[in-house]
Every structure is written in structure tokens, then in C-alpha cells.
Amino acid sequence: MVEYWNLRRRQIFLGAIFVALLLLTIGQSGSSDTDFTVRLINARSGKPLKEVTVTISAWNGEWKYDPKKPSAKKTTIDATTDAEGRALFRLAQPLPEHIGFLLVPPDDFAGCCCRQNFSPEKVLQSGAVADYDQSKCGELKSKAVPKPGETVIFEKKLTVWEKMGREIP
Fold first, then answer.
1. What's the number of CA atoms in the CB half-sphere (13 Å) around residue 56?
2. Share of the chain above pLDDT 90, in %
3. Is there a single domain that holds both residue 45 and residue 127?
4. Fewest CB atoms within 10 A around its CB: which of 5, 53, 68, 120?
5. How far is CA 153 from each of CA 52, 68, 87, 113, 150, rounded to the nearest angstrom?
6. Are residues 65 and 7 in the same domain?
């Protein structure tokens, strides 16, 4: 009788392990969202730009998004940077062919970032640093190494005087 209960306990224990592993496997394969992070850095100081709204655009098709094409379908998501200058975006599977970022409102920034198109797969593998227009925005005060899944953007927030100077011809 004792052997029966020992055998029964073993079966229950192995069954519980099997169910736990099955649930863990299903949970991982059922994950349909992929995280992308933008890290926004002040080109003047090298410090994070916090409380900035960043829009991610995701689309398939041609490299340059053309909203006039009937097949053009673009998804946009807004997020606000935290104290470390990071904004988190979740994109559903399947991943789009292209992603791009826009700082909102764009008139508050100098436009140091030149490249608007990234491959999501490359960003996930090794991260990316957006192209930076040094002739427009000056020399960078710091460097950044992106983490996988992260896009680093150096940008210069305009002062009130700089904004006024843009408006006066």
C-alpha cells in the first residue's frame, strides 16, 4: 500500500511539473507584442530630455512612407519620455517593415535627427542611433551606445528666442 502512495505522489508531482512547463511554453509563444524603446538625449548637454512626446510610426511597403498610396497603412503610437529620457512602445506581431520616430511638437526642436526610417529587426538585434546633423545642431556633448531594442536620438530643444528667430523672416 505504501508503494502505491509513493508511486501516486510521483505521478502527481511529475504531472504538476508537466503542466507548469506547458503553461510557461504557451505563455511565451502567446506573447504577441514587441517592445521598442526610444532614448532621447539633449544634444547640448548630453542629459536626458524628459517629458517629451514621441510618436512611433510603423508601416510596410516602400522605404519612404507615402500616405497617398492606397496600400499605405501606417500605425502611430504616442509615448512620453520619463526622467531618463526613455519612451516605451509596444508593437504587435507581425512586425512592420519600417519604423520611424517624430518628436511632438516638431517646432519645439532643431531637427537634429535626420533619419526617420529604421528596420525593426536591426533595432531589436543591436539597437540604433539616429543620424545626427552636426552642421545644423553643433557638436555632440556625449556619445551613446544603444541596447538591443533601443533607438537613441540626439536632439536640441529650442529656446523661446530660437523659436522666435525662426518665425521672424
1. 25
2. 51
3. yes
4. 68
5. 12, 28, 11, 7, 10
6. no
20 & 98 share domain: no
Beta-strand runs (E) in 47-127: 53-59, 74-80, 86-92, 98-104
Number of domains in the chain: 2
In angstroms, rounded to a whole number, what is the distance separating the alpha carbons of residues 85 and 89?
13
pLDDT of residue 129: 95
Burial letters 53-70, b for 16+ CB under 10 A, else e:
ebbbbbbeeeeebeeeee
Q: What is the mean pLDDT of the chain?
A: 83
Spatial distance between the Cα atoms of 54 and 46, rounded to a whole number of angstroms: 18
Are 125 and 144 within 8 A, CB to CB? no
Q: In terms of residue numbers, what domain contains 8?
A: 1-31
- What mean pLDDT comes out for the span 75-86? 96
pLDDT classification of 163: cutoffs 50, 70, 90: confident
Residue 43 belongs to domain with CATH number = 2.60.40.10
